[in-house]
């Protein structure tokens, strides 16, 4: 009997050397409990906009390799939102990006990061995030509104780039010296196109046909004065076009 007890004790000691805590189990003791990472303090501080408390509380969760994935995502999203509210854009993007690596299905976070890209002036990345959010949740209202607005803006920019430096008329058919001067100067060409577009707008918005005809006569008179004045001493073509554009747009710049 004594020899059998010695064998059992030897086996227990050998097991404890391989598996920590096994000795406790072999002798009837409880294994050491694994400390749980509490994300609540991080979430509460972030929701309360308390930067002093949220910083260390969230870092304790995010920097701990034992933090469970769901809690890590929650902490990253909460801290990212807090950084965004305090205009710490790069930090917010970093937290959102890390959260999305862990869970790419977070439509709210994709939309939030898209808004952050917009603040940084990176419209292509913004529209990419908004589109990704909508692929996950086609009914995401904020993402839909953001995507629509930025898509229109990019379309407008693309259209402007396509006609940049081009006047309202075909330079290949330019005969008058003033027209050739406009075609040869990018700034004047842009001004001419803007004047043409503004005039088309005010005519389109005229209250009746009579008012529309009156507005067109004013534009025709401007063109005639521009053509006659070009080349004469003291005539400033750029200023004349700028003045016409301001008159068409009104004092409020409409």
How would you describe what is shown here?
It is a single chain. The N terminus is likely disordered. 73% of the residues lie in helices and 0% in strands. It has 13 helices and no strands. It has 254 residues and is mostly helical. The protein starts with a helix and ends in a 5-residue tail after the last helix.
Proportion of residues in helical segments: over 70%
What fraction of the residues are assigned to beta strands by DSSP? under 5%
Number of strand elements: 0
Coarse morphology:
elongated
Order of helices and strands: HHHHHHHHHHHHH
| Count of discrete alpha- or pi-helical segments spanning 4 or more residues | 13
Radius of gyration: 35 Å
**Residue-averaged pLDDT, rounded?**
84
Describe the protein's topology.
Elements: H1 2-18, H2 22-26, H3 40-47, H4 51-62, H5 69-85, H6 89-102, H7 107-120, H8 123-136, H9 141-163, H10 177-184, H11 186-204, H12 209-229, H13 237-249
Helix pairs in contact: 3-4, 3-5, 4-5, 5-6, 6-7, 7-8, 8-9, 10-11, 11-12, 11-13
Pfam family, one: TPR_2
Signal peptide: 1-25
Protein name: Tetratricopeptide repeat protein
Q: Could you give a quick summary of the protein structure above?
A:
The chain has 254 residues and is an all-alpha fold. The protein has 13 helices and no strands.
Write out key terms for the chains shown.
254 residues, 13 helices, single chain, disordered N terminus, mainly alpha, 0% strand
């Amino acid at each position: 009997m004594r020899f059998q007890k010695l064998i059992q004790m030897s086996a227990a000691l050998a097991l404890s050397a391989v598996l920590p805590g096994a000795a406790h189990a072999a002798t009837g003791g409880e294994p050491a409990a694994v400390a749980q990472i509490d994300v609540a303090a991080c979430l509460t501080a972030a929701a309360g906009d308390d930067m002093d408390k949220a910083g260390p509380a969230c870092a304790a969760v995010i920097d701990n390799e034992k933090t469970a994935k769901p809690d890590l995502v929650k902490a990253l999203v909460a801290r990212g939102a807090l950084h965004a509210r305090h205009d710490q854009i790069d930090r917010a993007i970093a937290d959102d990006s890390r959260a999305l690596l862990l869970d790419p299905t977070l439509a709210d976070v994709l939309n939030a990061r898209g808004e952050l890209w917009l603040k940084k002036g990176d419209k292509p990345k913004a529209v990419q995030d908004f589109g990704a959010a909508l692929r996950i949740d086609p009914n995401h209202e904020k993402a839909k509104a953001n995507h629509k607005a930025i898509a229109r803006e990019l379309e407008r920019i693309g259209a402007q780039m396509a006609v940049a430096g081009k006047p309202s008329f075909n330079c290949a058919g330019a005969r008058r010296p003033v027209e050739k001067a406009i075609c040869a100067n990018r700034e004047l060409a842009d001004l001419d196109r803007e004047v043409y577009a503004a005039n088309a707008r005010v005519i389109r918005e005229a209250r009746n046909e009579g008012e529309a005809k009156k507005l067109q006569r004013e534009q025709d008179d401007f063109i005639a004065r521009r053509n006659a004045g070009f080349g004469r001493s003291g005539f400033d073509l750029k200023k004349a076009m700028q003045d016409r554009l301001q008159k068409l747009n009104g004092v409020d710049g409409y």
